[in-house]
């Protein structure tokens, strides 16, 4: 007979997050899957409140706020969007608005967080980051169109702030900081065209750029390798989910070397 797990309150989640290693005054980028947490009283609002409670008013909470719907349709190359539609889509997509543009595929917690009072959101039309706390403005201030996860992005700012990454019911394939490691690694890289609608001087314009083609197929593998060599990483339950808390600087440094060593290597013939 299966035992029904009791519901989790905001206070329960906050206590578990503290036990995991979140500290008052810390800076953390959270990646969450509400569906993995069990029955949370208050749903996504309780999760946001618990995260804010864990880091306290002196801490800064970040979450991804990506809006993939504003990518160039040729970049997305969706099977149900024929090429003859691309021109109309480029002309008709609304300009990115940090206050109004919804997230896409980020989950209920991240979508609510981007609307939270006082949240700052970075300027990239597709890969924005939302943040709340004393460091929020500085963490989101720089986000170049052609460097969405690199040295001119919130990921570099998070690295410099010696922040943490929290994986709450998700795997390393959702860890945005690993894209900074891709930028820093040495392997055969591919750059692709992209574009999106932005506002410039109050006028909607379609901006184009070239960017590094980012991968995540090996993110779970590099995450497992990192955990195997870094026993100080934190593991534990939050709600019904498995949670992992890692130091961003240690993870990015490790992954940059790992990508350099593994990507682009041709397997030997057996």
Automatic annotation (TrEMBL):
Name the SUPFAM superfamilies for this protein: TTHA0583/YokD-like
EC code:
2.3.1.-
What catalytic reaction does the record list? Answer: a 2-deoxystreptamine antibiotic + acetyl-CoA = an N(3)-acetyl-2-deoxystreptamine antibiotic + CoA + H(+)
Q: Coiled coil: which residue ranges?
A: none
Query: Is this entry keyworded Transferase?
Result: yes
Q: Which GO terms describe its biological process?
A: response to antibiotic
- Give the UniProt keywords, A-Z: Acyltransferase, Antibiotic resistance, Transferase
Task: Tell me the GO molecular function terms.
Answer: aminoglycoside 3-N-acetyltransferase activity
Stored InterPro entries: Amioglycoside_AcTrfase, Antibiotic_NAT-like
Pfam families membership: Antibiotic_NAT (PF02522)
Q: Which family does it belong to?
A: Belongs to the antibiotic N-acetyltransferase family.
Stated name of the protein: Aminoglycoside N(3)-acetyltransferase
Native organism taxonomy: Bacteria, Bacillati, Actinomycetota, Actinomycetes, Micrococcales
